[in-house]
Amino acid sequence: MYFVLFFIFAGLCVAGALNLLLQRHPINSALSLIVVMTSLAVLYLLLGAEFLAAAQVIVYSGAIMVLFTFVIMLLNAGEEERTLGTSQMAYFVGVPGVAALLGLLTYVFLSETTALGGSRLGDAIVTTSDLSRVLFRDLLLPFEVTSVLILIAILGAVALARKEPAANTPAPSTKALAPGAAAVRGVAVLAQKESER
Amino acid sequence: MTVPTSWYLVLSAILFSIGVGAFLFKRNIISIFMSIELMLNAVNLTFVAFSHQWHQVSGQLFVFFVMVVAAAESAVGLAIIIAVFRARNTLNVDQVDLMKL
């Protein structure tokens, strides 16, 4: 049973990740990433991490991916064009590098299979009270620091995503122009100032 | 029926490699950001597998902190993507090659 569950959800994970890689439209990639994250939650449960399984569903597939889908829909992102990019290095060094990394890791892990042992149904699970005992006693300071981090992140997100107030913009007509035209106009204004001096 | 811990580790290596591949091949800035999340998830699976292996709670707590930081990171990152889209009107990374907005 454990074996079957592992293979079903490991297969779902890999299939979802490959779908993320192959799909052209970002919304399809986002939905397949949700599949990956939810299957990973089941794998966490198989490894006896019940709190993390719940947190994975709530935080990752619930909050983060909803944020991603919101942004994709807000920006009306269309299908991406498969350009080759400016750096050919990424393909000639990156792809063999990734393949070598995967091969090396797989070799190391599989050669240590007997030393590492395994997991089966009925292993001791880590309960939420076990986790919280360590979290709130030994790791209290990092926990409090993360709450400050979240606060700063909220402020930063609001500050970055906010529209510029219209009163502060000195030349509203520049805003309406295309970026290239605005740059040309800026250069023209600079040149005019130079000639006046 | 036991599943060896190394299989979980191999699965996480596969997911991480797919994440790196997606990072290299994708041209949409949101898809690239999603492949970073995939890599974070792959590493989280390694933490949980080792935490189960050695009966240590701290591995799972590390995953908890990674989740918190990932949530903060995605909020700020998506806000930056919105700001970039407003300034450039594109999501293609080939056209967003200046540090300036």
CATH topology of chain B: Helix Hairpins
Strand content of chain B: under 5%
Q: What spatial form of chain B do the alpha-carbon principal axes imply?
A: elongated
Largest interface chains and counts: A-B, 87 and 74 residues
**Helical content of chain A, roughly?**
over 70%
Keywords:
heterodimer; A: 197 residues; mainly alpha; 76% helix; B: 101 residues; Helix Hairpins; elongated
In short:
The complex is a heterodimer of chains A (197) and B (101). Chain A is mostly helical and 197 residues long.
Helices and strands in order:
The complex is a heterodimer of chains A (197) and B (101).
Chain A: H1 2-22, H2 26-46, H3 50-74, H4 89-111, H5 113-116, E1 118-119, H6 128-137, H7 140-161, H8 172-176, H9 179-196
Chain B: E1 3-4, H1 5-25, H2 29-53, H3 58-88
Walk me through this protein's architecture.
The complex is a heterodimer of chains A (197) and B (101). Chain A has 197 residues and is mainly alpha-helical. Helix content of chain A is 76%, strand content 1%. Chain A contains nine helices and one strand, in the order αααααβαααα. In chain A, helix 2 (26-46) runs antiparallel to helix 3. The termini of chain A are far apart. With 101 residues, chain B is mainly α. Chain B has a single domain (5-95), classed as Helix Hairpins (Orthogonal Bundle). Helices cover 76% and strands 2% of the residues of chain B. In chain B, helix 1 (5-25) packs antiparallel against helix 2 and helix 2 (29-53) packs antiparallel against helix 3. At the A-B interface, helix 1, helix 2, helix 3, helix 4 and strand 1 of A face strand 1, helix 1, helix 2 and helix 3 of B. Strand 1 of chain A pairs antiparallel with strand 1 (3-4) of chain B, so a sheet runs across the interface.
